[in-house]
Amino acid sequence: MRGCTYIDKTREGALYQEHRDVVTINEWTDRIYQNTPLEHIITNVVSGRKMRIQKYNLVDTVVWNPWVEKAKEIPDFGEEEFPNLVCVEAGHVSAPVILPPGTVFEASQILQVM
Questions:
Q1: How many other CB atoms sit within 10 Å of the CB of residue 53?
Q2: Which residue windows are transmembrane per the record (predicted)?
Q3: Per-residue pLDDT averaged across 32-45, rounded?
């Protein structure tokens, strides 16, 4: 995601530039990456398994992990589960779509285990 701008919701919505090719998670993370590529490959660094996300008309990609403290606030989340989780979602978040009456917005995503 090198070169993508992101909104970091864990740092009061500050805007940053991503300088890494591969995004890794090692802390509480809640980011909205703006104007991201149409396809992402997510790799489990332990198992090596991969998943592909393909998106249409969804310009942003959200990356989230509660990490230690926030995971404690989620009742059905085990204390040691946070390092094994990354939530990656396609969306139209940084500039929400406003639909006047009678109009249509179409978007989709395809999730594929590789």
A1: 20
A2: none
A3: 93
Q: Is 77 exposed, middle or buried (0-12, 13-18, 19+ CB in 10 A)?
A: middle
Q: Give the Å distances, CA to CA, from 113 to 6, 42, 60, 82.
A: 26, 10, 21, 21
For the ranges 21-25, 79-83, 101-105, the lowest mean pLDDT is seen at 79-83
SS (H, E, C) the chain: CCCCEEEEHHHCCEEEECCCCCCCCCCCEEEEECCCCCEEEEECCCCCCEEEEEEECCCEEEEEECHHHHHHCCCCCCCCCHHHCCEEEEECCCCCCCCCCCCCCCCEEEEEEC
- Residue 15 pLDDT exceeds 80: yes
User: What are the domain boundaries of the chain?
Assistant: 4-113
Beta-bridge partner residues of 87: 64
Q: Which amino acid is at 54?
A: Q
Domain 4-113 top-level CATH class = mainly beta
